[in-house]
Amino acid sequence: MNMEIILNEHNKAEYPPMHTVEHILNQTMIRMFGCERSKNSHIERKKSKCDYTLQQEPSNEQIKEIEDKVNEIIDLHLPVTAFFVTKDNVPPEVDLSKLPEDASNTLRIVKVGDYDTCACIGTHVENTSEIGRFKILNTDYSEGRLRLRFKLEANS
Length: 156
Known about the structure:
Blueprint: H1 16-33, E1 40-42, E2 48-53, H2 60-74, E3 80-86, E4 106-112, E5 116-119, E6 133-142, E7 145-153
Antiparallel strand pairs: 1-2, 2-7, 3-4, 4-5, 6-7
Helix pairs in contact: 1-2
């Protein structure tokens, strides 16, 4: 017996490589700074931005380390997979703090290899080898908010 999986409607069409790199960037920020996933992001094909809450402004060396780590993960050619769970069976590593109140009982969990796992209804690549090179364009830090602006470049 096949059950139809009902998810919330998705209100935008992302560019899969950029949306997938957002997952990698979020997990990199969590691991490097102990912060939460981006609470505010704007993901577009040409360039994107994510905001993080941090106690202090990262150094130029740390910004370069973020870029290097994201590219290191991309270069691992990790599979990007998805599976479905009910809200009462969510893996413990999945943060549901951004989940809308009206979210369906069934959630789609997206995994980027063993690097990142989160609930997401967006579109993604099948493998990180499809992403390209991650490049931080600029940053600004004000009152505990770090904004990272970034783009993807074709692999050379």
